[in-house]
Amino acid sequence: MAEQHASGYDTADKGRKGSVVGEQYHQGMRQPRGGGAPPERPPTNEEVAKAVQQKVAAAVEMSRKYRHVAWYSLFVAAYMVVLYLQASAYKSGEVVETMKKLFLPEDGSTTMTFRNEDEVLEYLGSKVLLPIWKDPVCGDGNCEWPWEFPSWGRFGCRADCGQNTNTTSVVVNVRADFTGHPSISARVLMNNAKWNLCLEDEARRKRGEADLCWYEDDQTFTEVQVNSINAAQVIDGKWYVIVKGDYAGRVSGAIYDISNSTNPVAIPTTPAWEACKLVRRRRVSATQTAMRRLLAAYTQAHKVGGEGGRRIIQEAVDEISKMDGLKHINFNKYQSKLASAAGAAVAGAAGSAAEAATAGATAGTAAV
């Protein structure tokens, strides 16, 4: 039978109600601290397990709190470092000291009196703006980025920043044909069209500056039909061709990389740099040309009158009779009507010529 101790625990019970601690006291494997007798009621296994569980939970919670403290301390330290770097305490102090010297009067007083607004603006401009905010000067030995940079082409400051050797040789082949437009003359189209090669630079745009373009002034055209070759030395980046005033879409071209002069490589553009397809207008018929010529001759003859007017009409008729589209018309039967030199006969002469041209047009249409 199991031994029952006076403390009330069963030595044979190895479960929750038993006590491993009491068993150790009973067998002499455990002694009370400081000597003395063992406790009358040693803790049961369940009580020991709960105590261990509580200690483990407390240790885990304490570890979690320590981690939180460590992370928070690390965050505060990093935050203070960032603030210090952004504040630049020493530089800020120098800036404040410089501003105080410039703003305050030289005699050390802390008050100033201005008679009007112009004096305030003049004081700020002469004492603050001009001495502090100076434009970079190329050649002073200080390369002030981003306003100064290694030179390439006509850009940059070679004296302060040196030369940029990382450039690419390219050729811009520009083609244009301004002729053949149905309503706008070639000269008008030519005079309005311009082009340039520019570098897309977001940093310059954010500073409010324009993109750098290879040519200082946009290139114009001097001929209505052009096929030109234009060389350039460009740096790496996103370049684009800008075409202005080409209302009819007559300017096209291509860009080639000529780093290897014996084997130029075409550089694709997006979208393709092509000219618009022009629909040629239909050729004006000979009859329409003849009618316009007669109308102009009649207007002039009406102003002149008499023999002079008849002669103008006669010359117009002779000119019309030689047109390719009207050579099949016999103008002889209308010559008698052109013999009169009276003012009223001028209108009759013009009407006869117009009748002949119209008859020729009718005959031509029937023949077709």
Which terms summarize this structure?
8 strands, transmembrane helix, transmembrane, 4-stranded antiparallel beta sheet, membrane, alpha+beta, 368 residues, disordered C terminus
- Average pLDDT confidence is 79
Write down the Rg: 51 Å
**What is the 3D form?**
elongated
Q: Helix proportion of residues, in percent?
A: 40-55%
List the helices and strands and how they pair.
Elements: H1 20-27, H2 45-87, H3 89-103, H4 117-132, H5 158-161, E1 167-177, H6 186-192, E2 194-200, H7 202-206, E3 212-213, E4 219-220, E5 225-235, E6 238-244, E7 251-257, E8 265-267, H8 286-304, H9 306-321, H10 343-367
Antiparallel strand pairs: 1-5, 1-7, 2-3, 2-4, 2-6, 7-8
Helix pairs in contact: 8-9, 8-10, 9-10
Overview of this structure, please?
The protein has 368 residues and is an alpha+beta fold. Among the domains are: 137-165, no CATH class; 166-267; 286-367, no CATH class. The protein is built from 10 helices and 8 strands. The strands form 2 sheets. The chain has a 4-stranded antiparallel sheet, with no helix packed on it. Strands 2, 3, 4 and 6 form a 4-stranded antiparallel sheet that branches. It is elongated, with a radius of gyration of 51 Å. Residues 340-347 and 360-368 have low confidence and may be disordered.
Short description:
With 368 residues, the chain is α+β, with helices and mostly antiparallel strands.
